[in-house]
Design goal:
Blueprint: E1 8-10, E2 23-27, E3 30-33, H1 44-47, E4 53-58, E5 64-71, H2 76-82, E6 85-91, E7 94-99, E8 101-103, E9 106-113, E10 116-121, H3 128-137, E11 143-149, E12 155-162, E13 168-173, H4 180-193, H5 198-206, E14 208-212, H6 217-222, H7 235-238, H8 245-257, E15 261-266, E16 273-278, H9 281-291, E17 300-305, H10 319-328, E18 331-336, H11 344-366, H12 375-393, H13 401-407
Parallel strand pairs: 3-5, 13-14, 13-15, 15-18, 16-17
Antiparallel strand pairs: 1-4, 2-3, 4-10, 5-9, 6-7, 6-10, 8-9, 11-12, 12-14, 16-18
Helix pairs in contact: 4-11, 8-10, 9-11, 12-13
């Protein structure tokens, strides 16, 4: 019986490493890969280079074994904490989590690759091609609008739902290319809004919802971790850059949308922690109460206060959220859900759940406060009550006490 043809790596849009230069074939079906990062270790983006996306082709009619070594550029302690696993795509929208064996900064995996083409990824792949196919599948009532073009010529697109003349709820995802869960959460929000539930219909009657599922398509396509391209910008903390067309488009979008809510979706690597960044303690309490205590798996919440107030002349950090807040009074929330232990279906569901919780926080903020008594009338009323008591003690009465009670 002839041996099956060996597994073959494919380098396509979205691959990391992007070429065969960083993949060494040690033997048939035994590879060593060195993930690529757009900036060197020690820089801001070098700290967060958590991307490895490899497409593997199995031309045989049966499943084959693959021994894969991933040699990271990180400190071994960081590898042990964040990068000791991979996800393998076993079918469309189905991923299997595989734990590896840590050898310093290298992680060794024993993988089973079914016939066909399959992604091996730290975070399950959601590339520009996935995004484009999903947009094309949306019904007509979900308006897909192009609001900008990247330096690489890729369209920047949003989904617009709800009443066109209502205030805006804004959702932005995938500022950082390696954070594929943020795009999947945005997909879950759109699907929930289109699902026809009474809660979704109520939101769409009251608000206009504008969702950017992939804010950084160039970075996703080029295999970047955080930037728009090698030498580009980090959209989350330095998007106010006139030289970058992606950053300019995001800024224009915020000025045009004038959002009352800006929900910024992210995907950090802490395995057992969901993250919430907030600005006011009342927002933290309201969000966690609305979201609910029960989380899939053994997850817990870690809530962190966002950075200090933005002032003219400050270094450009976290301007994305501050611009919406300072200019338009938006409620800003950042949600971080890691992939570890969750499927795409769970991520979509929890993304919609986070959106509903954020809308409830906004509703509480905008609910009119109880009307307090006019302090002048109250003081008159107290004086009148005092007069009434004195009159009662003297055997008299106060004619106007009932009128003042009504006025209060």
């Amino acid at each position: 019986m002839r041996d099956p043809p060996p597994l073959k790596p494919l380098f396509v849009e979205g691959s990391n490493p992007p070429s065969a230069k960083r993949l060494e074939i040690l033997a048939p079906n035994r590879w060593r890969v060195r993930p690529w990062i757009e900036e060197p270790e020690g820089t801001r983006v070098g700290i967060y280079g958590f991307r490895c996306d490899l497409l593997v082709r199995n031309r045989a009619a049966r499943t084959q074994n693959l021994e894969l070594e991933v040699s990271w550029h990180h400190d071994p302690r960081k590898v042990r904490k964040y990068l000791d696993f991979l996800h393998i795509e076993i079918a469309p929208d189905r991923w299997h989590l595989v734990q590896g064996k840590i050898l310093g900064a290298t992680v060794r995996f024993a993988l089973r690759v079914p016939p066909g083409d399959h992604w091996l990824s730290v975070n399950p792949a959601w590339h520009v091609s996935h995004h484009t196919r999903w947009l094309e599948s949306l019904p007509r009532r979900a308006r897909v609008r192009t609001f900008g073009v990247t330096k690489g010529g890729r369209p920047m697109q949003e989904i617009v739902l709800g009443h066109p003349r209502r205030p805006t709820l804004g959702v932005i995802a995938r500022c950082h290319p390696y954070e594929s869960a943020s795009s999947v959460k945005a997909v879950g929000i759109v699907e929930w809004l289109l699902g026809g539930s009474s809660a979704a219909r109520r939101i769409l009657r009251r608000w206009r919802v504008r969702i950017i599922p992939m804010a950084n398509p160039d970075g996703v396509a080029l295999g970047c971790a955080r930037l728009t391209r090698p030498g580009g910008v980090d959209l989350n903390i330095e998007f106010f850059q006139p030289s970058d067309p992606t950053a300019r488009a995001i800024e224009r979008w915020i000025h045009e949308a004038r959002p009352r809510l800006l929900l910024n979706l992210h995907n950090w690597m802490a395995k057992d922690l969901n993250g919430l960044y907030y600005r006011e303690e009342r927002d933290r309490r309201a969000f966690l109460r609305a979201f609910g205590r029960k989380l899939p798996g053994r997850r817990k919440w870690l809530a962190l206060v966002m950075g200090g107030d933005f002032k003219p002349g400050d270094p450009p950090r976290q301007i994305l959220d501050r611009l919406a807040r300072d200019r338009y009074g938006a409620l800003n929330l950042i949600v971080e859900f890691p992939w570890y232990g969750w499927s795409p279906a769970v991520m979509r569901r929890e993304g919609a759940r986070a959106f509903r919780a954020a809308v409830k926080v906004l509703d509480l903020r905008e609910r009119p406060s109880p009307r307090l008594p006019n302090p002048r009338i109250s003081s008159i009323f107290r004086e009148q009550l005092s007069s009434s008591s004195m009159a009662d003690r003297r055997g008299g009465s106060c004619r106007d006490s009932r009128l003042l009670t009504r006025r209060v």
